[in-house]
Design a protein that fits this description.
The protein contains 3 helices and 5 strands, in the order H-E-E-E-H-E-E-H. The protein is α+β, with helices and mostly antiparallel strands. The longest helix has 21 residues, at about 55-75.
Length: about 140
């Protein structure tokens, strides 16, 4: 579990937020520093740091809300699509240690720059795939 964060304060209504949806398990609200108008965050009410510590049931409930909110955000702002993103760990850009999913409306592809692509060295992809499969089979 995580420490007190800006998100737990929003859940407790200790600080204001533009809440767009709430149910027993999740909360969705507008990002205070949006990437585009309508940028919405979906969080579980239980305070998990990220995907590495959340239980399956809470994760499924959170993703159900993401699936519900995404088309509403898209349609509300007249977007052509949405970018759904979640960062897990500081190295991945996670700033708030409470699991959250960004739903960012996109009107055209030019609004979003994809990550740079790399090429594997010869044999590297096979080696990494083998390590992932071995880790999964050890569980």
């Amino acid at each position: 579990m995580t420490e007190e964060t800006i998100f737990t304060k929003i859940i407790k209504r200790e600080i204001p937020a533009q809440i767009v949806y709430e149910d027993e398990h999740t909360l969705a609200f507008l990002d205070i520093a949006p990437n585009s108008p309508g940028h919405t965050l979906v969080i579980p009410k239980k305070p998990f740091v990220n995907i590495f510590d959340i239980d399956q049931e809470t994760f499924a409930q959170t993703m159900k809300t993401v699936r519900k909110i995404a088309p509403a955000v898209r349609d509300a702002v007249g977007a052509q699509g949405v970018h759904i993103n979640s960062n897990h760990g500081e190295a991945a850009g996670q700033e708030v240690p409470h699991l959250h999913f960004h739903i960012i409306p996109r009107h055209d592809r030019g609004e979003f720059q994809f990550w740079p692509k790399i090429e594997y060295a010869p044999g590297q992809a096979n080696e990494i795939a083998e390590k992932i499969r071995a880790t999964l089979s050890a569980e």
